[in-house]
Write a structure and sequence with these properties.
- The protein has 731 residues and is an alpha/beta fold.
- It has 3 domains: 213 residues, Rossmann fold (3-Layer(aba) Sandwich); 211 residues, 3-Layer(aba) Sandwich (Rossmann fold), CATH 3.40.50.2000; 180 residues, HAD superfamily/HAD-like (Rossmann fold), CATH 3.40.50.
- It has 27 helices and 26 strands.
- Strand 3 and strand 4 form a beta hairpin.
- Helix 1 packs across helix 17, helix 2 crosses helix 3 and helix 2 crosses helix 21.
- About 1% of the residues have low confidence.
């Protein structure tokens, strides 16, 4: 990397994350993974190899959540920021509802990147939704792409089916089919996947892509050792406790003591989201069915944050309701605590220390556990663990020798393991000490960041050695667009190309010589394939942007990257089949060939206008169709989504890439160019224009050239002194 400091952009989209006091367990989207993401970014920001870490999430302005989530930029430390981008409105929504808004998120992130004038060295997506966003940005910006799945759709789908949920219900609620499709694409294109355990690679990722998976790096998460320190440190001479730690300690003790008849007993502690896969009910059953264990210890289950169970999502509501029913069934009053909330920043670390000081045990009885971050937090605090014999806990207990593995479906085995540790003082001390020492050896953030950055530097070095140039100075699309402040966009037929083309080469030379800040685009009624063939035939350099099919499609660069954001924007309320069926009654309409038809464009031939257009408008309007109708050259009729046209596409590009309309020069010759010529842009009508554009004469910012085609464009460039403007010269 030649000493250059790294700029990393990470993505975790759901919105409920912040630099301090994370609301872990608030809902299904605020599990341990958000702590991992924030801590990773924080510790990366402390490394000398890092110039900047930006963690992108969704901006949320909603009275039901903290106002912290509405701050567009939160500075966490000198090199780490949380950047919040709005999409899909401002209300908080669970991640399954965000899919339809991700292309909007990508567009706005691109705007942010251009505004900051800082293309990252690498992008890293967490979860499938953020993986989709990071993949698209990676393609566009030409930077390596890292993915961390945390949990994957295939395994979730299988588990929900096992739990008795109907397939149709799973697809409707979780959109698992779409999630799996995205995960497949992400895994086929990722440059590196980071996992926590070898079992995660084999079991979670193995079923994807027919086994043809990208490179993996198994890097266990770290733990904040300044926050989760051994319980007995408070007894050491000279140990200084933060006043907030003391207050948190008192608060947690008070909360627990109000539940227990005998608060001095060892504490069996569980801390997790109220999710069926966490198997909280299995732990309560193990405790409730073992009278000896009840005599030995108290049970405390911190199952997320809640105000009113009745208002929670179905999964959480079901789990919490069953917990209360089991408390009553086994008559665990005075022996079991189910607090309604816990504050993560200070109360959770104190909770581990309190349980350890009481000679207790931390239990994770999840049915599936990819890693188990709470296990290493508890262990770092000196609290022995009992954990499910699955995934991450196997590695943790193998590395740390700090507890026992159990079959999560066997309640007697769970109870037996807890009793064994609590009743054997020597074993408890061994597990406690091993956890404290070995977590520091195997699960420090320092080690995690070092391994992570070694991989990142390797990817970035490989990327920097790749020749991204694509002839005549072109570079990867996103990097090119980041430097464009001006645009020439022209129609193709009879505008850019037509007549004897005597001045086409001259125009291409002007564009090539001034390409530093000047972008070149075409806007055409042709399909993308037809447009490319014509441009190549006449030796026209590859445009930076192609607006094709009368503005219904946008493509970027030689890579022809399709603008999915534009597609999502214009496709709303588009009913192609309905419109085709309605117009089939008009014999005067002749459907153009298959090659002319697109998902977002219907094309006909229609001559002898008369009263035909009003009849078409009347029929479509009466049937509540959302559409845009464009008729040109006395024979071409194109029907598009209501939001689509060449002019609207140009304005979208202006918005997305923050190129002011007054910095865009647009040239055309016919009626389907009229809309894009109007407004605040600089318009040029070439000398061979169709009579239908005569009505534009005299309008501000529209120049009627005398020369034809490319010569007329050059004449317009001179008229507006456009090249001088791109160079910042006085005009």
């Amino acid at each position: 990397m030649s000493g250059k400091k790294l700029h990393i952009q990470m993505f975790s989209l759901h919105g409920l994350l912040r630099g301090e006091n994370l609301e872990l367990g608030r809902d299904a989207d605020t599990g341990g993974q958000i702590q991992y993401v924030v801590e990773l970014a924080r510790y990366l920001g402390m490394d000398e190899r890092i110039g900047r870490v930006d963690l992108f999430t969704r901006l949320v302005t909603d009275k039901t959540v903290s106002a912290d989530y509405s701050n567009s930029v939160e500075v966490v430390n000198d090199c780490f920021r949380i950047v919040r981008i709005q999409c899909g409105g401002r209300k908080y929504m669970r991640k399954e509802l965000l899919w339809d808004h991700l292309d909007e998120y990508i567009d706005k992130t691109i705007k942010f990147i251009k505004r900051e004038d800082a293309v990252p060295d690498i992008v890293h997506g967490h979860y499938a939704d953020a993986g989709y966003v990071a993949l698209r940005l990676s393609e566009f910006l030409g930077v390596p792409f890292i993915f961390t799945g945390h949990s994957l759709g295939r395994s979730k789908f299988s588990k929900l089916l096992e739990e008795g949920m109907r397939e149709s219900e799973i697809l409707k609620k979780y959109r698992i089919d779409h999630r799996i499709e995205v995960e497949e694409e992400v895994l086929q294109n990722a440059d590196l996947v980071i996992a926590s355990t070898e079992q995660e690679v084999e079991k979670q990722y193995g079923p994807y892509s027919g086994g043809r998976l990208p490179p993996f790096a198994v890097i266990p998460p770290g733990v904040d050792l300044e926050k989760f320190y051994p319980y007995h440190h408070v007894l050491l001479p000279g140990h200084q406790q933060d006043e907030r730690e003391i207050l948190a300690h008192v608060s947690v003790l008070g909360e627990l003591n109000r539940f227990f008849m005998n608060a001095d007993k060892p504490l069996v502690l569980a801390l997790c989201r109220p999710d069926k896969r966490k198997n909280i009910t299995g732990l309560i059953m193990a405790f409730g069915e073992d009278l000896e264990l009840q005599a030995m210890a108290n049970l405390a289950v911190f199952a997320g944050i809640r105000k009113d169970i009745a208002e929670m999502e179905e999964n959480e509501r079901s789990v919490l309701t069953e917990m209360l029913l089991m408390l009553d069934k086994y008559d665990l009053y005075g022996k079991m605590a189910i607090p309604k909330k816990h504050e993560f920043e200070y109360e959770v670390p104190e909770l581990y220390k309190i349980a350890a000081a009481k000679g207790g045990v931390f239990v994770n009885a999840a049915l599936i556990e990819p890693f188990g971050l709470t296990l290493i937090e508890a262990s770092a605090s000196g609290l022995p663990i009992v954990a499910t014999n699955d995934g991450g806990p196997r590695d943790i207990i193998k590395n740390c020798e700090n507890g026992l593995l159990v079959d999560a479906m066997n309640t007697r085995e769970i109870a037996g393991a807890i009793k064994k540790i609590i009743s054997d003082t020597g074993l408890w001390k061994t597990f406690s000490g091993n956890g404290i020492i070995n977590v520091r050896e195997h699960y420090s953030w320092t080690a995690h960041v070092a391994a992570y950055l070694d991989r990142v530097e390797s990817l970035c070095s490989a990327a920097s050695s790749t020749d991204f140039s694509a002839g005549d100075g072109d570079t990867v699309t996103g990097r090119r667009f980041a430097g464009i402040d001006f645009f020439l966009i022209t129609d193709i037929d009879n505008t850019l190309i037509g007549g004897d083309n005597s001045r086409l080469d001259e125009l291409m030379n002007v564009l090539r010589e001034n390409r530093g800040r000047l972008g070149f685009g075409v806007a055409t009624g042709r399909t993308i394939d037809s447009a490319l063939a014509l441009l190549e035939r006449h030796g026209v350099r590859a445009p930076d942007v192609i607006i094709s099919s009368v503005g219904s499609e946008i493509y970027y660069g030689r890579e022809l990257i399709y603008d999915r954001g534009w597609h999502a924007h214009i496709s709303e309320k588009w009913e192609r089949e309905k419109i085709v069926n309605l117009l089939s009654r008009f014999e005067f309409l002749e459907m153009q060939g298959v090659a002319a038809q697109r998902k977002l464009k219907i094309s006909y031939f229609m001559e002898d206008l008369d009263e035909r257009l009003p009849r078409i408008h009347d029929l479509l309007t009466k049937n509540r169709c959302a559409y845009n109708l464009i008729y040109s050259q006395g024979k071409h009729l194109d029907i598009l989504p209501a939001r689509a046209s060449k002019g609207k596409a140009i304005r979208y590009i202006s918005y997305k890439w923050e190129v002011p309309l007054e910095n865009m020069l647009v040239a055309g010759d016919s009626g389907n160019d009229e809309e894009m010529l109007r407004g605040d842009l600089l318009g040029v009508v070439v000398g061979n224009y169709s009579p239908e554009l005569e009505k534009l004469r005299g309008l501000r910012n529209i120049y009627f050239a005398r020369e034809k085609c490319a010569g007329g464009i050059l004449e317009g460039i001179g008229r507006y002194r456009f090249i001088e403007k791109t160079k910042g010269e006085m005009v």
